[in-house]
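To fix ideas, we close by showing one paired sequence and structure record:
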Amino acid sequence: MQVQGRLTALRRKHPFLALSIVLVALWLLLYAPLLLGSHVLPWDAIDEFYPTAYFNAHSLRMGLAPWWNPYIYSGFPQIADPQGMLFSPLLMAWMLLRKAPGAHWFAWAVLLHLLMGGIAMLALLRRSSARDFGALIGALVFMAGGVAASRLEHVPIVLAYAYAPVVLLALRHFLTGPGLLRGLLLGLAAGALATNLVQVAYLFALMIIGYAAIATVWHWRHYDSRTRWRYGFGVVAAVLLATCIALPQLLFSWAFISLSNRTVMSLADSATASLPLRSLVSLLDPNAWHALSGPYTGPASRVEAYFYIGIMPLLMLCGLGAAWRCPIQRRQVLFFGVVAGVAILYMLGLHAPLYGWLYGWMPGIQHFRRPSDAAYLLNFALAIFAGLSASHFRLDSKQHISILLIATAVGLAWASSQLHGVESPWRARSLVAALFAALALWRLQRPGSRARTTTWLLLLLVADYSCFNLNGSFDRGHDMARWFMHDNTATFLAHELHDGHGALKPRIETIDAHVSWDNNVVLRDIPSTQGYNPLRYALYNQWYGARDNGNLPRVDTAYNPSPASTLSDLLSVTYLVRGNTHQTAAWSPPPGYVPAFSGKTTDVWRNTRAYPRLLTPTQALLVSPGKVPPPQVFADTNFHDSLWLTPRDRMDAQIARVAATICTGRTRVISVQTVPTRTIIRTQGDAPGWIVLSDLDFPGWRADVDGATIPIHRANIMFRALCIPAGNHVVTVAFHPWSMVATAMRQSRHRGSQPE
């Protein structure tokens, strides 16, 4: 009674704070397994995004710039990854709070973003005259309904989704009282949203711009001349600040995309993520396509076509008519009704004309491949609808409550009956929600306060989500990062690579190994030729070949037809990691590979023919720009003594032609020091000679000798070669991200000036 009295007093003095505390308690109940550390975020979250965030935070704590990741794809521009989260302010701040943030800490970061968005949704609904109960229902739908629950693995998307209500709240705050400070707050929120360069951020930005335009027209007539000036200054401040925050990530990512394997996505690439209209059936039945148990039979990915927001919020939508009769709520219902309609048409992708039409003329659409991402806008709109309509529910009517709970209990029992397959984690608990609805119906037959009724109904929705949306592989998985840190094969490789190989460690290649061997290599400083990312450097992708992730088969190219290829040797692939489970097909080691280690799930083979990461040949063989030597001629070359100059353009060819006649001596390497973004080499030579680094010839890398800039030549198809003058020198090769952007801009202008 004493606690209840204190809560009542808090609600009277600080009503929104009290609501926020209730929402935090519900958030803790919803995500307890993740927050308590018994599980971590699943799939891509643990296999791709956690290692990425770890690399960023660990590098910054070590005083190193995380611009270049040397551990995946033989070197990767981390700063330019649109899903790299390096510029996501709250996530990186959270990750920097611990010396070695684990996957559990990372899960807290993601879920705290969802809580932030939920509190902002709570405030948005309250500003639209939603009552406490309705605002809490809407916030819960936002945090755990539909794709908000089923796609927790897609962390950058979740971050963008979480910022959307924050930006909208800041916008509404600004419009009610325009000014410089409120404009800066709006710009700060909008910039944080835009740092996550995913399609969801793009779509929400368009939604918010549309909302701002319509709301500005409505508010403008109520502004006096002074307020209009304040509005103008505030908008300029917001745009400038948002641009300053978002522009670096935008420019770096644009530069990398223009150099990548995905400069644009074809319209046909959107086919697999286009959702037919029948996918919306999952709004009513969470297991409509066996997304929860049984063999999945639905359209697109099961996480993309999952829209279930709970039986009770769906029933609450019957109150939209009452919301429509309220003028302030009518505007929200109308706007978000349009948003929901457009989102559905966009989600349909190639099944409807809208997406193809937008693809043809709207900038940015060509860089994305999942029309299904618009489901986040639909879930956002449903959260608004549920919150506004629930505000008109008669919490003081025993009849209304009984009807609602009976219908909810029946709906939950029916949803549970659709589950089959005892192997599903949903099976054992699916009836709990229906039983809880029956219990709530029994308890609420007795007279009680509105607060008591609200509590039971909110807990019922939590039970619903816990039994369906948040009770299995959608939102939780095993900590494969921790497993990798203790894996005996990874321990063997970490020891081998750190001892006896000097500063420039050799690389590994993985075949038929678990996807945990992709990006988790960064946790143990193991350089790999593979990784987990849809973006790869186009030059690397073309000649060496790389997979999106380790679940896919090895990519073979003319110059890299097998692990025994010369290109692999030049990449210094010294260890081959291959799965040895019963599902792995029979395999014979390539020539030159000998057994090195056998672990529980993987075997390691040592490549005795691998070249070191740094070579000092004396003879340069030159081909024309854009040409490469024939595969067999290339394979027969002794790269200890020779290199192929394969110029990237005419200017490189002109300088390389001169260097080939001058650099004929043998450069001696005295010492090498390296960090991810810089390599320092001390050399001696009686005559000018070559240094060839088995690192990618990627725009942004610059070289100097004793402080004087020298050219980097493209050599051996995709590597870097330097012509070093005679004498004793200090050679520095460093990565400069803005130089990468400048190079991409020059190349873009050059392509634009070419005749069609």
Observations:
- Residues 1-38 form one domain.
- The chain has 27 helices and 15 strands.
